[in-house]
Amino acid sequence: MKKRYALLILFTVAFAACSKKTDVTPADPATVVAGTYAMTNLRYDSAGVSVYNITLPANSISGTIIARRDSATVIYTTYTIKQTGYSDYSDTFGQLKLQGSASPYDIYYGSNKVGTTDGKTFTIDYSYTDQGVTYREVYAGQKQ
What's the pTM value of the predicted model, to 2 decimals? Predict the structure, then answer.
């Protein structure tokens, strides 16, 4: 009798282990990326010269990047830089489009690629030219 009972339990456990689980639909890119990121790097170059390249948090400087989901592939992104003794500086990257079928996703502003994200890290790295001088800005963060 004990053998039958043990076999019954063994078959039940084996059957339960092989049963189908409901597949979870993967989240859309914007849902994966949306959230608050603690800034880890802040960089600014002018004419190929590094004006500053700060690993954050540093001394009395910290920052956050906030990505809000607007649609399945669009996020609205803002950032805030804080420094002790000064008013917080907040600005916006605006609406950014996520491209790619899987993480990491490329981040686009219009038709220009301006960064990458995998939902854990977030990096905006773009260059622009003003009056013949090329500038580069980098904002990087780790999801909180």
Answer: 0.80
